[in-house]
Amino acid sequence: MSDQNSTTPDPNEAVPGYQPPASGGYQPPASGGYQPPAAPDSLNLPPAADPYRAAGGYNQPPNPGFPEPAGYPPAQSYGQQPGAYPPAGPVGPTGAPLVDWTKRALGGLIDYVAAGLVIGVVGSILSSVNSGLGSLVNFVLGVGWMVYLGYKSGTTGVTFGRSIAKTKLISEETGQPIGSTNGIIRQFAHIVDSVICYIGWLFPLWDAKRQTIADKIMKTVVVDNSTDPNAGNYNWNL
What dihedral do alpha carbons 67, 71, 75, 81 form, nearest 10°? Predict the structure, then answer.
């Protein structure tokens, strides 16, 4: 057995030329970090070779210049107001909507019920003095008022009640007032609406053109007149 003592080998002697790492752990590279590639300007590229530079900078990519497709309208922004929508429900020959039964009833309450109450009060007062006189005045005022309503309906399409409801009577064929004579005939044609238990006055509730029987006889319709700035002003003159 050898008498030599075993010793730890020295790395410096074991591997010639080997240098051990410096103490202190990992050392980062001396440079300041990752360096991006050089910009095209530093390469001195001409504008034709640098499309982004020719377009005005790297923040503005070049416009490909695609043409707008033919046959399509320009797109509208969300803030743009759309065009006017057509009115809901049936419309008359002028494009104005046909009024519903509620508006017709409002005008009728003023033209017939309210006026009838006034005439009835006047007739009752005169009847207390002379019954024959009261009945005569009541009849004359009633017929005269119906003629007046027919005249105004035929010439202007507007009665006092319609001015409150902002409606107008017109011909369903021409869209114009039907004339004084036809207006008076139509007014008395309402008798047909009344003799069948007043069912004719209710026809606008289900009729497609919202007409009464008198309207069907005279071919008239009642339209909304609220767009007329003078719709609420009534002229009592003949």
Answer: 150
